[in-house]
Specification:
With about 80 residues, this protein is mainly alpha-helical. The protein has one domain. It is built from two helices and no strands. Helix 1 packs across helix 2. It is globular, with a radius of gyration of 13 Å.
Length: about 80
């Protein structure tokens, strides 16, 4: 389980400290899925929505906890999956 942190941003690189509300909500949603044991999470978001921010932020948060190991993060175009 990922511990609740009053400030998730404390583990994020300085360049990524400022999120839009929907970005913070999405990161919290992703962390919730991980806390619930999900092994695979698919993020579908439009250009400019912050997919790179999500990956860097979630990776940084999990890395700071030292209890999670990220095996792979893939970013691919949806049509390349089929």
């Amino acid at each position: 389980m990922i511990p609740e942190s009053p400030n998730m941003l404390e583990h994020i690189p300085e360049d990524f400290k400022y999120w839009r509300k929907y970005q913070q909500e999405k990161i919290e949603e992703i962390l919730g899925h991980i806390s619930n044991g999900k092994k695979t999470i698919v993020l579908n978001a439009p250009t400019g929505a912050g997919k790179s921010l999500y990956n860097i932020s979630v990776g940084s948060i999990l890395n700071s906890l030292k209890s999670y190991q990220i095996i792979n993060i893939y970013i691919v175009h949806f049509d390349s999956l089929f």
